[in-house]
Amino acid sequence: MNRHHTNILVLLIIAVLSGACSGAKYLGEGQKYYDGAEVKIVSPKGIKGKVEMKIDLEEMLTPEPNVKLLGSRPKVWFYNIAGEPKKEKGLKYWMKTKLGAPPVYYSDVDISRNVNLLENKLNNEGYFQAYVTYEVKEGNLANTIVFKAHVSEPYRYDTVRFPPGEETLPRSIRGIREGTLLETGQRYDLDKMKSERARIEKELKDQGYFYFDDRYLLFRADSTLGNRRIDLHMTVKEDAPTQAQEIYRIGDIQVYPNYQFDGQGTTQSVDTTMVDDIHYIHSDNAFKPEVITRHVRLREGDIYTKEAELVTLNRLIQLDVFKFVNVDFKDMGHNELRADVFLTPFKKKSIRLELQAVSKSNNNVGPNFTASFRNRNFLRGAERYELNLTAGYEVQVGGQTDQPLNSYILGVENVLTVPRFVTPLKIENVSSRFVPETKFKLGFKTLQRVDLFRLNSIDIDYGFSWHETKTRRHELYPVSIDFIQLGNVSERFDSVLQNRPTFARSYEEQFIMGTTYSFYYNSQGKEERVNRTHNFYFNGNIDVAGNLVHLLQSSTSSENNTDDNPYQLLGSPYSQFVKTDLDFRHFWRLSSTTKLASRLIAGIGYAYGNSVVMPYTKQFSIGGSSSIRAFRARSVGPGIYEAPEDQNYIDQTADIKLEGNVEYRFDIIGAFKGAVFVDAGNVWTIEEDENRPGSTFDSSEFYNQIAVGTGVGLRFDVQFFVLRFDLAFPLKTPADDKWRFGDIAISDREWRSQNLVLNIAIGYPF
């Protein structure tokens, strides 16, 4: 992208980030905007948790003031200039409802209501003598309010008593006291009491109390003990129904695998097959009965448990062959429940055509066409078969290059997913809640880099994917085979291969046969409140190739392999290496509209035995729209090495990688989001590369060879689609001895043309 386009986009980003006018001309006589409120905690020394208390109280205040940006109210400006749209569509309607928001005036604030909300919140948290005062700070165009919460020492539990009595229900409640959320000495907290009731309900439902509800529990707090102590009594309401105090068992179980509503909720199924005491009721043989019933964790005669019901639902949904799954219970009398499992299948066969605008981490963007055929019940065992055909064109944009690197890609992939472990040895599922999957893959892909080379690859994979918990997932591919073939090499690229033998070995025709393992952790899967302050993501990978084949050949062959004469398989050499990489991310929610995202990546790979270098497709690189955005894709390093101008089209790859990113993300207007970021990292070789001096990793010097870049971003985020513009410039290159802070000259056209890098991408960088 030329410098003129870059300059225009710089001005656009600055214009969007700078906001709009103050909106003073839209104020009526005597009107003022509302600029929000803050809460100050007035308390004696020694009270803990005042910061958290302030945040909780401020989140309760209403209304929300208009978003301000650099002293202006851009949403109000869009709302006003849009006027009154005549139709609920069109540019004006979109501007008014999506970009704009109605002004919030000081007169809209109900101060008394806010005072009551704050005082009730404080009382519910044990500050029984708390009271709230307020002060209005008046400005020329807007007013703000300061609420002062006067609190003293909170009331705490002196004793926590559970329901007395020898009836079945009170004894059951006392039996689960060990996991209580309420302990002596804790501050009185109404929300925690509600959570304790919900915990007891869940525990009791897992003991057969099908009809029990937490509303049948009552807390009585006696605060007359003195010294701010409370005697807390939990009781069962006297009007709790008899059903709620009795244990129920599972009676009949009926499964309807092709349930269709006919207007009266009936089904046309006519045949019944008994499988493990389960009535499997069907009108065709679309599924093998045992494939479905093995996921029904309810059994006749068992005590009803909520856990068994949820596991049944989760496992049947995870099969991905049913669009509706429901378990319905009916009272059969005599404390027995009939369980009806209603399943409505997806269409067995489907075709999907998709045209995408693709953006990759190497700055390649372009149209991508995918045609997919799916059979959701391929062999009557809920297997999923997919045939994917892909065709795409990519052009590299952004970065400091005047000649874009074009490429074409064609691919075909076959994927068969079986909802269980398919192995010679029996493997027990590690979690009853989740359905493990076995995947068989066969694919072919050809990548044509225009004026450089064509790279063909055949992939064969056999492996497993399973969840240990909602937050932890594993992938293991004991068989992962790739065959790579380089062809259609241009004279320009061939001359580089001739002059750099080690580099050529990474591109040579070869087999990659090994085992891969990946572990994923994502804290967003936890069953907690949605808006967590801190979220974590971790991915660790291990890739080992060539060891088994090398062991067999070295033990049976009379000749030893050498660097110039490696062992071969079917006429082609094979790779032998070990590689591991880690990706750790932290997302810190600072407020409802701001977030601090950070990422750390570390990886190392080592070729040995039958290889002198890892394959090109397995090496590490750095730079690009999802990496260090101030540098062209795959252009940084290795080490302090800088490629000559006539070879800057060659991807710089190596054996070791370190990368760190920090990004402050914030809302601007509607779907428009902003970001300020800093990226840093580099790659290195393990062994000395005579063609790339300075590329070797040195533990005493590597930190001085870190490339650093910074910039600002503009994103258009409509949830299902994110278009991203990141404008970045380098602060330090690996070969520099000094930082470039003193050289920054945003107003200088020549500096902008030499340093600014515009990244256009789809999706967030991490």
Question: Can you offer a commentary on this structure?
Answer:
This protein is α+β, with helices and mostly antiparallel strands and 766 residues long. The chain is built from 13 helices and 29 strands. The strands form five sheets. The chain has a 16-stranded antiparallel beta sheet with strand order 12-13-14-15-16-17-18-19-20-23-24-25-26-27-28-29. The protein has a five-stranded mixed beta sheet with strand order 8-9-7-11-10. Helix 3 (74-81) runs antiparallel to helix 4 (91-99) and helix 10 packs across helix 11.
The strand order across the widest sheet is 12-13-14-15-16-17-18-19-20-23-24-25-26-27-28-29
Q: N-to-C terminal Cα separation, in Å?
A: 24 Å
Low-confidence stretches: 1-6, 8-20, 263-267, 358-364, 398-403
Strand content: 35-45%
- Number of helical regions: 13
Mean pLDDT: 88
Helicity level, as a percent range?
Answer: 10-25%
Q: Gist?
A:
It is built from 13 helices and 29 strands.
Write the layout of secondary structure elements.
Layout (H helix, E strand, L loop, with lengths): L2 H15 L15 E10 L7 H9 L15 H8 L9 H9 L11 H14 L6 E8 L3 E9 L5 E6 L6 H8 L14 H16 L11 E6 L6 E8 L12 E8 L14 E5 L2 E5 L6 H5 L12 H13 L3 E12 L2 E10 L3 E11 L4 E12 L8 E13 L9 E13 L18 E13 L3 E15 L4 E16 L3 H9 L1 H7 L2 E13 L11 E12 L1 H10 L11 E2 L2 E2 L3 E13 L4 E14 L48 E14 L2 E13 L22 E11 L4 E11 L16 H7 L1 E6 L4
Parallel strand pairs: 1-3, 4-6, 7-9, 7-11
Antiparallel strand pairs: 2-3, 5-6, 8-9, 10-11, 12-13, 13-14, 14-15, 15-16, 16-17, 17-18, 18-19, 19-20, 20-23, 21-22, 23-24, 24-25, 25-26, 26-27, 27-28, 28-29
Helix pairs in contact: 3-4, 10-11
